[in-house]
Amino acid sequence: MNTIPVASLRRRHVDEAPTDHVVQAAHPQQRRVVREAPPLPHDLSGDDDTVLVPFLEVATAEGPVILPTSLPGAPLGSDGLPQVRAQVLRHRYGATVTRTLPGGPLPNGAPARPTYAANQILTQRTLARRGFGSWELRFVAAREQVTLERVLDDVASGRAVVPANPNHPELEPTIIGRNYRTKVNVNLGASSVRADIDEELAKVAVALQGGADTIMDLSTGTKLAWVREWILRNSSVPVGTVPIYEALDRVGGRPERLSWSLFAEVLEEQALQGVDYVTVHAGLLRDYVPLAARRTTGIVSRGGSLMAAWSQHHQRENFLFEHFDELLAIAGRYDLTLSLGDGLRPGSTADANDEAQLAELRTLGDLARRAGEVGVQAMIEGPGHVPLHKIAENALLEQELCDDAPFYTLGPLAIDVAAGWDHVSSAIGAAVIGAHGAAMLCYVTPKEHLGLPNPEDVRAGLIAYRIAAHAADLAKGINGAQAWDDAMSRARYEFRWNDQFALAIDPAGAQAHHDESLPARAAKDAEFCSMCGPNFCAMAHSHRALHDA
Ligand SMILES: C[C@H]1O[C@@H](n2cnc3c(N)ncnc32)[C@H](O)[C@@H]1O
Ligand SMILES: Cc1ncc(COP(=O)(O)O)c(N)n1
Ligand code: SF4
Ligand SMILES: [Zn+2]
């Protein structure tokens, strides 16, 4: 069994991050361009700092095309990413305080990041309700190409969330909600059976380079505060965790020893470290546990199974539900966005939309409303395994029962029998639930149900999910989505092969396929490819036939 040597953790931390994880542009015609967001409207208060927003631009023969995607961050390097929010946060909240970070002091005297005291912080939801156009809300409005007023309205009402812990100054914020570009989350992290720090760092680089919109560190089994620190400092996208995993680690893997006070301690430590959103399985009530007993696959959520084990052992109500007001108070103090966990999501198509799942969903709606009352941002986690004909019902029920809080789904897998190919079986479900309004799609890799993903699995899962998310965006008519496809289609009809590679979700993969049969430079201008050859190229004939038509 592999473990993580503490020495290697420290060596790989911020100070000495390996250079082979540097993020590079996916294609020479792609680059990161920075634009300035519109000035703060005169009738609104807010951060009046300049808001610089990076976009991914593709240079084509017709001119530049801005892709509606997340961006590869700056190079992952020894110092972490630039702290793009540091100045604006200082303007808004005043001086930072010095604290010791969880996991002990930083190695080699690396400076601690700025830390805000809990009582200084207001949530983006509270700011939005006060009509305050924060830097973060102005940033996401520009990124999504919508008005600030619309973002303020959606964040205030809870229809959208902007996870942005002030203690994560490297963050380029993103907005998650049904009216916005469908986001993709990448799950990462070691497990006790397979823990190799270099491989974890490689996965982070693959995720950021591949255009993940958020990442979750789901590490279990060993103390990994340093890994989380490294991820946070090198992540330009929001970072999520499931704090009950670290809590379980601290009680030696014995769920009956979990407690509210331990959970609160872990939650606060992770908040100080800069985690942007956390999954909490507070909706799995004791009464719902028997409903799962008649299922084909019982409880497949890790966090859900822990809470069920705890309440069965103690014959008491879920402590996250019992202490939910205190949980909200901590979340509010750090603007931690809550991801209300679906501990009873179906783990098989046979269990989809059953009474256990829907009972928990109703409770998640109540919890989301309670979060709203105190200005805490919240989204709702969803399944799992759902056959296509039950997806619309599930998505509509979520909107109805949870007042349109953003729906964040794991897939869902449309079939149960694709082992080894569950990135595909689940991307099919994900595209359908995205088209029905799911706001963020949690990716699934080819290793699902079989083992811990390696970097190549992460890449395959992420590409599958970017396809699913974009399919949903075309269906929803999201800004910039159709224009991207149209740019590709024109490049295709005009035989601009290099432009086609540059516009592809996976430029290197596209080019490799073309190169396999036609590697010559001249072939990149040819009016055919090896599929049909010059005499049978339909598009070439089409140009001639339609020329005078
Ligand atoms: C809830 C889902 O989270 C994913 N999951 C759980 N732990 C990890 C990890 N360390 N790395 C990647 N994915 C993980 C699995 O896909 C699981 O089904
Ligand atoms: C969309 C989604 N659902 C669930 C989890 C947590 O995993 P678990 O519930 O197994 O602890 C997750 N990270 N993302
Ligand atoms: S993925 Fe593996 S370890 Fe996780 S619940 Fe399924 S069988 Fe258990
Ligand atoms: Zn499954």
UniProtKB/TrEMBL annotation:
Substrate binds at N187, M216, Y245, H281, S301, R302, G303, D342, G343, L344, R345, E381, Y408. Pfam families: ThiC_Rad_SAM. Zn(2+) binds at H385, H449. Pathway: Cofactor biosynthesis; thiamine diphosphate biosynthesis. [4Fe-4S] cluster binds at C529, C532, C537. The keyword Cytoplasm does not apply. One of its GO terms (biological process) is thiamine diphosphate biosynthetic process. It catalyses: 5-amino-1-(5-phospho-beta-D-ribosyl)imidazole + S-adenosyl-L-methionine = 4-amino-2-methyl-5-(phosphooxymethyl)pyrimidine + CO + 5'-deoxyadenosine + formate + L-methionine + 3 H(+). GO terms for molecular function: 4 iron, 4 sulfur cluster binding; phosphomethylpyrimidine synthase activity; zinc ion binding. This is Phosphomethylpyrimidine synthase. It comes from Acidimicrobium ferrooxidans (strain DSM 10331 / JCM 15462 / NBRC 103882 / ICP). The lineage of its organism: Bacteria, Bacillati, Actinomycetota, Acidimicrobiia, Acidimicrobiales.
